[in-house]
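Notes on consecutive records. When two proteins share a document, each keeps its own sequence and its own token line. Never mix them. Below: protein one.
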Amino acid sequence: MSGRMSGRLTGIGVGPGPAGYLPLAAIAALRSADLIYIPRARGADLSVALQCLDGVEFDRSRLCEIEFNMDPDRQVLQEHYAQLGQQLAAQLRQGLQVVYLTIGDALTYSTYGYVLAAVRDLYPGCDCVTFPGITSYAAAAAALEWPLGVGKERTLILPCPDDAASLRAEIESHDIVVLMKVGARLPWVLALLREMGIAQHCGFARRIGLEGEVLASDLTALDAADASGYLAVLLIRKTAQAQRHRAPQESSKGTA
């Protein structure tokens, strides 16, 4: 273990996607860490974050796997983060270099945000650094070659609403909607996109670069039963992407 007087908490987003989606600075921090916290979803056999680090060389004996609690009860969640924050704060006071891994970007709809807040509350003077990572929607856009915004298009990043009317209103008031945390809502979301006549402009990605990957750049025929699950993101475009490299159609000349 490190003999340094000052500990540091480093937040690192890994993946989502093929091995290698990791900044060089984050790799250096990973290799110099005394402890590496790696979350695993309750009920999962393997940590997805660890799968995203396949091929990256670092000391795996320093891994500290924690079962992640997504209980809907706010009191249970509060106790979970308070306990984890106390554990991390104590280790940082000992001068340890602690890394916390998460999927995607560490501060974009990530549980690391709660962890960081808990640690700073319990240990105000702690040294913390967070490396920006690749968001799920950036990885999805790259995998699908799907522009997230061009020109003056307005893009909204949105956790999926609980009802179709709310989602329809958001789609109608924006050019592009990035829909996260879709989960079991996928069947009615797909039905809404088809009803609005825009499914052919939309993209979907799940488990990018991992076993069970689903990629679709046209959602007209996407089967919700085959695509539903964790680590999914939906890219919604209200109209067809502008083809600015093409000359105007001859038929449009001279029209009012």
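Protein two starts on the next line and is unrelated to protein one.
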Amino acid sequence: MNNLGTDVVVAGAGPTGLMLAHELALAGVDVVVLERLPERTGLSKALNLQPRTAEMLELRGLLHGAEERSFTTVQDGHFAMIPVGYDGWDTRFPFQLGIPQAQVEAYLEEQLATQGTKVLRGAEVIDFVQDKDSVSVRYRTNGGETRLRAKFLVGCDGGRSVVRKGLDVDFPGVNGEGFGMVADVLFDKIPDGAQKQWRTMRNVGGATGDTTFKGLIPLGEPGLYRFVYGDRASRPADIRSAVSHDEVRRALLESYGDSATVSEIRWASQFSDAARQAEHYRVGRVLLAGDAAHIHFPAGGQGLNLGVQDAMNLGWKLAATVRGWAGDDLLDTYEAERHPVGAQVLHNVAAQTGLIPRSHESRALRAVFADLAALPEVSRHLSGMVSGLGIRYATYGTSHPALGSRLTDQDVATEAGPLRPSTLFHNGDFVLLTTSPAHTDAARAQARSPRLTTQLVTSLPWPSTDAVLYRPDGYACWVTPTPTR
């Protein structure tokens, strides 16, 4: 076996692993990405970037490239297929960006390559051993087995994560009761009533019976649609089994009858409403992110986004630890902050599946809930959950409206004119917005990092506030004068 060395091994080259590798490389950390598959599948899979994910990509100057690969913007989200708007949120991106997961992965991998980091494909993680100083990762390629020693290992290798299983971390939850089938289909004749462009979550899907549901989402290419079909009361014997094209055609016929004809089925897969979350996201020098840490029914379009946001939270913390700028106390905050967020997503997904109409009573409940969701306050609350805009991290000992909240990226006033704050985050630094350079040393001590960008502003949007320090992932972590509870 060969013995190589690196700072961090990332297992898995999905959106979570690629985003994490990007963050680490940006901070000057040596990272190796191991991917079991020999090449990208090209399957569309997830279809959206939520508003908070768009804000985070904007912090790194990556959003424009994603927009170029997108096929639409969707002006609302949904909760159990009940549309909810983003109107109540202060964001520059009050929409979902329609973009296939395959395009997200291709774009992130291209950006990673510009940083000098490549994905090692056809590299299947077999096992690992950690001690107090390092992790030894054994993986298999066509050339045989290799052992790679690193300071840390992060499992971003999906719901059946080898890394999570190797940690022997509990993965509690529910197996689920029902299933869904998803396929990309090219119609010769589009079903009556189907949207021609995906601009809203209205009329893209709904119940077809007491336990069954269906949906059609146009994917930008003429005649190409995402078809979703499922039954909450029926679970196949093997949820991992391949879906035949005949099964898809039968489901289409059952859903739309002869009003639609299909010329091609690009791909098809099954999913279940199982929900599980790892008990811990960190064990020593091994961490979990994305689907390796949590799985759930794809309600609300949250899965890919939850993983990318895991990566943004972990990336700067892990980089600071590797570079010696911070210790275990900072790295421990990854689990402390993201585990509750993951738990909340599983909770809201369970609530969404509970609103699927399967009886007279549940249909009545759904109707009442839909009326409530139309209220601005309720719509804001629900959209904040599924979009990530409502995330606010806990702070202790102080109280200030900025602390723990995300950067909204509205222009700030400087002597040179208005400035968009997101432009200051492109290098992955802490960012200090301050009315006086006198606060820089205190902010640097709070950040515990040499990577600090200071921007003088003529005013801040909070009264009696002279400076606000933002973490690299865009959440405020310090203000001055320091308030007390």
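For the record: The chain has three domains: 3-47+100-173+276-350, 179-272, 412-480.
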